[in-house]
Amino acid sequence: MAESFDPKILYVMCGWCGTGGAETASAYGMYYPENVRIFRVNCTGALSTVHMLRPLLEGADGLVISGCHPGDCHYDDGNFMARRKVALVKTILDSLGLDSDRLWFRYVAHGEARRFVDTAAEFTDHIKSKGPNPLATRSDT
Amino acid sequence: MKGGQVDARGGIQAGITSFLKEALSKGCFDAVMIPTRVPAGDSFAWILTDNEDLVAGASPLPPVMPVQGARALSSITKKGKAPAKIAAVMRPCEVRAAVELGKLKQVDLANVTLLSMDCPGVLELSTYLSDPTKGDSEFSRLLDKWDAESLRPVCRSCTHFSATASDIHLGLLGAQAERLYVMPLTPEGSRVTDALNISADQELDSWQAKVDEVRQKREEQRRKSEVELKERVEGTEKLLATLSTCIGCRNCMRVCPICYCRQCFFDSDALEGEVAAHLSRAERKGSLRFPLDTLLFHLGRMSHMSLSCVECGTCEDACPMSIPVGQIFSHVARRTQELFKYDPGKNRYEPLPLVTYEQDELHDFEQPYVKTYSGKGAADA
Amino acid sequence: MPKTLTVNRGASDAVRALLRSLIEGGKVEGVFTLARVNNKGVGYALIRDPEKIEQAEPFYPWMPSSGGKQLSRLVSLSRRPRPLAVVLRPCELRAFVELVKLEQCRRDKLVLISSTCGGVYPVETLSDGNPDDRVPRYWNGLKAGEGQPDARDSCRACKHFIPYNADLTVALVGCGDLDEKCTFFVNSEAGQACLEGQGGVWGQSAVETEATEKLAAARDAERERQREELHLGSLGIEGLVGIFGKCVGCRSCREVCPICYCTLCDFDSAKYENEPAWFARELNSRKGVRVPPATLLFQMGRMVHMSVSCVGCGMCSDVCPVNIPVATLFSSVGEANQKLFDYVPGKDESQKPPFVKAELNELENLTV
Fold it and tell me: Chains with 3 or more CB pairs closer than 8 angstroms to A?
């Protein structure tokens, strides 16, 4: 893919852990790609499946979701519910031959600044290698 | 499977209605919810009745499924348990949908006796309506032969056509001429057979053998049609070509037994926006299709209901544009249900996959973390 | 008599060229018209890219959804108006005007383009075979000023096929030279402003011609025939049950109806969900009760809600999965109601809908 491709990436983060990871990263002055837009939710378990699908159909080139590590959820089990929903959405996309690899789910804890910037950078490179999301510019969706 | 037998001298339908009539007169239940022919004679509708003559004239196994039985049952018991003991006479997929709606708190099964029967499948609604007489005779042929060519595509490859989570199951397959098998599947079912003095201790080997035979054929058909369907719809291009004729009438959602929401998310204000937002979407795409969000609606609906999808095919029957919605949804549903090892409508007490979880599961969907990323965009690169 | 501009281009091409020049000239920000979807289907589209105007099929003889309804969702009341050019059929335009009057949307800054309409084919025929095969036959019919025998029932019975309230009207019915020439009738200043700078021959004439009058007469006769066929005058309760007996309650008639704008229909709301005890009471008073109940209540209730504004677009019949002639029935009831209030939906923009404003002295023969 051409270097000029600047992917639009939506990074959905849990307000307790994932966002904390990003804050820690900023405290250390660590770098993450500018094209990653962070979207904070109170808990990844509260993210509905439609809100995972919509960016993937309507403009984003990729979507990452980061919640707390298993056992760390502020609401006990939100991240486990989120994992089920991610699995559901990915299975639906897969079974219809749509690209499910534009959706990532990775745990990031409050102190894991390194893990956050790594995920942002790794996912950006991953999406760059895939190229633009074809659904974003189709007029028949 | 153990069960007993009852008389069906006037044919299968009459056998079922006379069984119901007797149960009603002996007080096994107070009313029956059953399909019956509409006055004009061109279709069928559900009635709730305690009148023995109306039960005798009903059509427990109609050749089409205009309204999914679980929807009908939900209209009675949505706000609480039935006012009196009701027997709901339904096809296996309708029973399964009713069980799912029970878990979704849209049906109260507390005062309901679910009664199912072996189902050969149904004809396409539009084909039937174009010539009801021909449809009736074709269906009685189907009841006899159990072949599949004239059935709806989802019925042709349905493997849940027999005993299910009902209280009593009526076996049509493998029965002697002018007889029906009666299988009580729950204590509630046994209560009814006991009251009717049906001894349900016979081993029904010939029924089981026949059911297995039909199931095997259906599974084969399923594998075949799955390949054909993938050929037709898999991948962005083919999927969008298939959905290109969708007019957004929401019929598939409205007739779906599982889609119970009074107000669908996709019809709510949630997806509305400023003209400017539409214009910028149109800018990005060059041209923006109306009705909006066709693909999002279908994929979103899948994420909402596919885990409970019983593959009844009512959606496909109702689609004015002949899009194979039922086949697409059932194809996806098989996969999502497989993911959580969930069989909708099988067990009344098994929780829905999205209200529960296990700590140790689905690790394939977690993106593994390589200790420190050192690719192009990495922090220190 | 309105001013006219005649250009040397086929009608569809002329409209596409006009739309393109409007976008390119910055007169509008987008164009709302029927367009190809994925080369297979057809649907409404908001087009911004001039290159994509090629996909526009302003007069494609199918109506996959009511354009008036779709447009109203785009330009709904709470939103700031933006300049858009819109191509709608006469019935869709009437529906849109009704929705404006019912305060669901606004027409500010819109350029409304419409045409005399030859009707459309049933929507389900879009999915049998290649719909394009029917198109040449349709245009030949238009040139001859005749309707298609296999057009939808509602279209064959429609007498409002000359648009009201359009800024520009394109003449199609009875125009023999449709393939080479296209005439725009200018009905407003906005329409005039659109045509500024367009090449062509200016003139002056009326939209109504001998051909349109002939078609109107044929359609009047067809409408009477359809209503007689259904015995609408003497239906009674038996007749209604006969017609609506097979209704599956999918509510698609309401979903596609341009006038039914409610986000949550009254008949879907909680007040029509019955307590279990209601069924017990019903069983005491009659032998059996149909479930889900209230099929006729929904149909007749909807008639009460929308029939004074019914434009007879026929979408309801088109999508009915059990082929109930909903539109014939509703438009007939609608016409009777409209006559009562001397109201033609979508015609006069300043006349308030009958249930928005009541007169002091009217309907006196109804009081006993």
Answer: B, C
